[in-house]
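Supplementary notes for students who missed Thursday's class. We covered one full example, reproduced here. Read the sequence, then the structure, then the short commentary at the end.
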Amino acid sequence: MKEIDYSKYEGLDTVILDKHAADTIAEDCHAFQCQLENHFAHTIMLMEQNIISREDAGKILKALLRLKELGPEQIPFRPGLTDLYSNIEEWLIDELGIETGGKMHTGRSRNDMNSSVERVYTRRLLLEDMEAMLLFLKTLLNKAEEHKETVIPGYTHHSQQAQPVTLGHFYTSVFQAFTRDFERLLDAYKRVNLSTMGGAAIATTSFPISRERTAELLGFDDYLVNSMDATATLDFAYEPAAVLAIFINNVGRMIESLLLWNLNEVGISQLALKYCSYSTIMPQKRNPVSLETLRYSGEWTYGALQTMFTCMKAYPQGNGREPGFVASLFYEISEKIKESIYLLEGIVRTLEVDKERGLEVTKCGFCTVTDLADEMVKSQGLSFSAAKKIVGRLVTIAHAENISVDEVDSSLVARAAREALNIELNMDNDLIRHALDPRENVSRRDLPGGPSPHRVQDMIDNGWRKVAELEALWQEKVRADQAATQKLMEMAASIAAEV
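Structure (token representation):
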């Protein structure tokens, strides 16, 4: 056996463990209010079930109310106590003595307590995310109305011009995607807002606690019945994280359009100056760094979600340290997405749109020629396949000979028909002009969901009704959460006042 000099590394392992403990406590402190509410609810339930006396409950609640005013920074964190709860319990015992302060945790484990605290904190983060999304949805509808007649090209296949649409049509398209994301959050909220209290460590408790009462006091809609499932499951974090990942993916697709329009070569729109940065050497640069920031938010979120899943791969049906790490990753995802929503809302609200350039780009891209083929079917009696071949040949000629869409006339159409199918086609110039006009092109697409201003307005009107519905559901949940907290605090104060 060789001699190794460990002196340089002595105590490094302890430093690492202490750092991990400090990180855990710092994370717990974010949910300090939620943890105190759990202590209030559990203590009141113990008193109501005659497991502890009203006097002891009053003393515990009175001390906890004082701690609430002091804040977590006033708690002396002790070596070896690696989470917020353990330090709170020791603080309470110091305040009241072990015979009174030591009764708060009766019939409870950190396992059911932590998971319930995490669920309360998660539901409040979701409500904040929903609030940001509601603002964004409203801004999209306002901008859709402003631009329901602003013609721009629609793009497919990685920025190939397809057909004319309007900016209003684009905005209502992303609005509908984001409303589905909002509805997914509402649906996930139902499964988040379930109490795990009473599951204890894994197998409930022999004390005659009331799981229903604790759930009610904490504002939960119900509780998870099986105690092992209650204390082990992490789907309350996975599901909303996955929903937010879908949302930020939709954001990513939207901002690709904003980046495309921002190119000098396209120039349909550009970001307000405050959302851009400058070059240290190139004075003409107006770098859309805010959009790059949003793209990174998506990439980071996908990675964090993947880490959440891999962290718990093959994890046994019980609790441990990793679940807390998974929940904390969701908190980070939620905060990053909320920030991203507010950033994107500001970008859209202040976006500088060049309407004339949008129309010009649409014309230059020959993206109205589908309607020329349609017109050949309607007025010339051709099959669509024949008309498409003729128009395809026409576009090839126009590109080769530098002919603009405004210069397309009956002679060019006749030439294309001869070269494509060896047929004679005499088409009126007025029909050609109307078929190729971008504004008329958009107006003709008047089916439900189409880009005509009339149909876009329909989608805007329906959108405002949907926003009102979603906002009412959100407000209902906010009020329920606030009412439960207020009632709990009033009960705690009332009982504490008796001692």
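Commentary. The longest helix spans residues 453-496. The chain has three domains: 9-106, 111-143+163-355+458-485, 369-436. If anything here is unclear, bring it to office hours.
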